[in-house]
Amino acid sequence: MPPIDVNPRYNWTSQEIEALLKLPLLELVSQAHDVSRANTDSRGVQLASLMNIKTGGCAEDCAYCSQSAHHEALDVSRTPLSRVGEVVAAAKQAKELGTVRFCMGAAWREVTDGPDFEAVLEMVRAVRALDMEPCVTLGMLKPHQAKALKAAGLQSYNHNIDTSPEYYGQIITTRTLEDRLETLSIVRAEGIDLCTGVIIGLGESLTDRASALGVLAGMNPHPESVPINALVAIEGTPLEDQESLPALDFVRMIATARIVMPRSRIRLAAGRQRLSPEAQALCFLAGANSIFYGERLLTTPNAEPNQDQRLLAELGVGLPA
Ligand code: SAM
Ligand code: DTB
Ligand code: SF4
């Protein structure tokens, strides 16, 4: 292979990306680490907290998701939208723990204008007022809604492509990848950062993983943050019996994402709870520079904050004082 280019490129082919994914692991991690050193502050890991502001009852049929109205996930009951006061209290607590980004997720297929959306705008303003970076994930958006979110102070919009164009129909049938890309372009047009990533471990092939990364790496500019999720298999969803992803596959995906999107924040996202401290250390070495921090993801537990504190301190990767 030619020496790795440490500057951003937007013309990666799926074949090139697949060749990276297939490199001997230590060669891949070493190349990714060089790219990290040249492009990011390798000591800084951004902490992001998640809050589910509206649980369950979503009209989409994403096969991995406990919140789809099409599945009967155990332990997930529908809730109305959280109150602004509850969100502010959770954001304050997250700030005390050292979180810089506060992400609010609603199980909506798309945003509808009205009191709920007005309340979300209020939440964004309140999180901004706490000097944190507000991020929301609300499903599909129309241009005037993106404009209103920007005006409220939204930093970032999470909207994942999830999987490759080729595998998409196996996982979601109620929307297309084109719908996702349309929302992403609406968000970007308003100057809101993109938080756009994938899930692996859905039964997709290595070629699918390369193809999904190719979609992200072809965006110019690259998404500012890229969550790499490993499936959390949830009882009651169609993927409940999916075999769990080998830890080193997670490392490979992070390293490859770092190489093809050298300046993005690569987030070691869902599925981290199952990784040993050693596997997580390899992910940071391979260029992961953000994690979800806090007891919960959306409907499942996250890695323990106490253990995270110990791990980050031991690795010396920048836990705030
Ligand atoms: N409805 C919005 C949407 O789909 O964008 C927001 C919430 S949705 C739960 C956000 C992302 O979380 C999904 O796109 C998917 O990538 C990830 N996710 C959801 N369930 C997951 C699971 N069981 N395991 C891993 N990642 C998951
Ligand atoms: C993202 O990429 N992962 C987060 C966040 N964006 C919204 C969600 C992970 C969800 C994991 C399964 C659950 O807790 O329901
Ligand atoms: Fe879950 Fe989001 Fe899919 Fe709805 S759109 S089923 S909340 S992943």
Account of the protein in words:
The chain has 321 residues and is α/β, with parallel strands linked by helices. It has a single domain, classed as Aldolase class I (TIM Barrel, Alpha-Beta Barrel), CATH 3.20.20. Helices cover 39% and strands 13% of the residues. The protein contains 11 helices and 9 strands. A 9-stranded parallel β-sheet has the order 5-4-3-2-1-9-8-7-6, with helices on one face. Strand 2, helix 4 and strand 3 form a beta-alpha-beta unit. Helix 1 packs across helix 8, helix 3 packs parallel to helix 4 and helix 8 runs parallel beside helix 9. The longest helix has 15 residues. It starts with 13 loop residues before the first helix and ends in a 6-residue tail after the last helix. The mean pLDDT is 92. The site of 6-(5-methyl-2-OXO-imidazolidin-4-yl)-hexanoic acid has 17 residues, from strand 2 and strand 7. The site of S-adenosylmethionine has 18 residues, from loops.
